């Protein structure tokens, strides 16, 4: 069993109930859930690996435009399986290649930032991102 960090991004928070239904239906357990507003500094830290990329400013503006909801999900092969549920990064691609994926259903196809949801891309990222959103939590 693994744990991963899932995020509902600002544009999809108003559809959190539907997304949480998918989380449960896909067999994940919600270990923790937290709704927060990211500061500019928070968002820059979370996405530090993208600093310097052409879309970085847009991404930070988007991620600080409203609340996000962070989840710790647990389940078998949770990291890869949650990425599968998300679908491709670009919503336009997701709609073509994985129409039932979360990004296809809840993202904005006209905007490469506003894909609605996030998931850790590796076990190492999952550990870092869980610590980022849930710093007070001690997980074995
Ligand atoms: P990762 O777990 O590696 O963050 P990801 O599928 O979210 O995976 P990344 O390529 O890492 O995708 O990009 C991080 C986020 O930045 C995306 O989820 C999206 O919101 C935004 N983004 C990515 N590419 C672009 C782009 N070309 N233009 C605007 N925003 C982008």
From TrEMBL:
The active site is at 118 (pros-phosphohistidine intermediate). GO terms for biological process: CTP biosynthetic process; GTP biosynthetic process; UTP biosynthetic process. ATP binds at residues 9, 55, 83, 89, 103, 115. One of its GO terms (molecular function) is hydrolase activity. Residues 97-122 are annotated as: Disordered. It comes from the Eukaryota. Keywords: ATP-binding, Cell projection, Cytoplasm, Developmental protein, Hydrolase, Kinase, Magnesium, Metal-binding, Nucleotide metabolism, Nucleotide-binding, Transferase. One of its GO terms (cellular component) is cilium. Belongs to the NDK family. This is Nucleoside diphosphate kinase homolog 5. The chain holds residues 6 to 145 of 196 of the full protein.
């Amino acid at each position: 069993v693994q744990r991963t960090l899932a995020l509902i991004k600002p544009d999809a928070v108003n559809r959190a109930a539907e997304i949480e239904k998918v989380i449960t239906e896909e067999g994940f357990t919600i270990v923790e859930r937290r709704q927060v507003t990211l500061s500019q500094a928070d968002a820059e830290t979370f996405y530090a690996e993208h600093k310097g990329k052409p879309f970085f400013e847009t991404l930070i503006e988007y991620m600080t435009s409203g609340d996000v909801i962070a989840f710790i999900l647990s389940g078998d092969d949770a990291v890869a399986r949650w990425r599968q549920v998300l679908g491709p990064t670009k919503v336009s691609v997701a709609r073509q290649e994985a129409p039932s994926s979360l990004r296809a259903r809840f993202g904005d196809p006209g905007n490469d930032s506003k894909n609605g949801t996030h998931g850790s891309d590796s076990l190492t990222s999952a550990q870092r991102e869980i610590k980022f959103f849930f710093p007070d939590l001690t997980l074995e």
